[in-house]
Amino acid sequence: MLIAGIEPTLNIDAWRYQMHPEIWVLVVGLIAAFVYAIRIVGPKVVPSGEVISRKQVLIFSLMIFLLWISTDWPLHDIAEEYLYSMHMLQHTILTYIVPPLALLATPEWLFRLLVGNGRTYRVIRFLTRPVIAAVIYNTVVIVTHIPALVNRSAAGGPLHYGLHVILVSSALMLWTPICGPAKEWRMSYGAMMTYLFCTSLVPSIPAGWLTFATGPVYKHYDTPVRVWGMSILSDQQLAGGIMKLGGSTFLWTIIIVIFFKRFMKGFFGDQSYAADTSPSAE
């Protein structure tokens, strides 16, 4: 039965279950590769000592879980077909949370084994230098919000998944100077804080555009089927809020943690007001 005003090809059941075997293959493949690296390769590369810590195993498990829920039903399908705000939530998870967790879960010996010492090392080292990584990531963020590209990619297919690969790859570059396995590639704490603060500013451009738009920005999401009764303008405003407030709050929280960890360490101990019981000099 068709509803007046809705095209015959439009599925009005936003919550219908849809299988995504490509995501299952990706998740299972990552788990299998990780287990193989830790159980088979690790003991050969690190004959004595810890191959991987329990903390890294837990971080890897969390990363896989977040990768799965952000790219499978129902979040992926709602994000792809109905609500741009859920599309933004999906991208926030894939750029701000999954990449740093993946880097933190990777043992240093495995990272060095993957990058080697030749051309691959030089290319990755160049792409993960702070300025280069920040420019690439923020360029990808801006480009992936171009209406024509969003409307075409949201229709599904290789372009949609290709953009996700590019987005995650650029995010890995961005986060490597912060929490990459190679310690010598990381920046100083002060530089990290500046780097993250500057990174939080660029998304304000598309976020502001979405928040203050007076009409539909992306025609693909201007559908008669409204999930949770959310209008197209409310959806865009929520998307802008997630992009600006969600992303910025996450980055600023990290900045605050770095500040207290590095610059306020031992401050309260040094400021003790306990009575000085040492003998006074005559």
Automatic annotation (TrEMBL):
<feature type="transmembrane region" description="Helical">
    <location>
        <begin position="238"/>
        <end position="260"/>
    </location>
</feature>
<dbReference type="Pfam" id="PF09678">
    <property type="entry name" value="Caa3_CtaG"/>
</dbReference>
<feature type="transmembrane region" description="Helical">
    <location>
        <begin position="93"/>
        <end position="115"/>
    </location>
</feature>
<feature type="transmembrane region" description="Helical">
    <location>
        <begin position="127"/>
        <end position="149"/>
    </location>
</feature>
<keyword id="KW-0812">Transmembrane</keyword>
<keyword id="KW-0472">Membrane</keyword>
<protein>
    <submittedName>
        <fullName>Unannotated protein</fullName>
    </submittedName>
</protein>
<dbReference type="GO" id="GO:0005886">
    <property type="term" value="C:plasma membrane"/>
</dbReference>
<feature type="transmembrane region" description="Helical">
    <location>
        <begin position="161"/>
        <end position="182"/>
    </location>
</feature>
<dbReference type="InterPro" id="IPR019108">
    <property type="entry name" value="Caa3_assmbl_CtaG-rel"/>
</dbReference>
<feature type="transmembrane region" description="Helical">
    <location>
        <begin position="23"/>
        <end position="45"/>
    </location>
</feature>
<keyword id="KW-1003">Cell membrane</keyword>
<feature type="transmembrane region" description="Helical">
    <location>
        <begin position="194"/>
        <end position="218"/>
    </location>
</feature>
<feature type="transmembrane region" description="Helical">
    <location>
        <begin position="57"/>
        <end position="73"/>
    </location>
</feature>
<keyword id="KW-1133">Transmembrane helix</keyword>
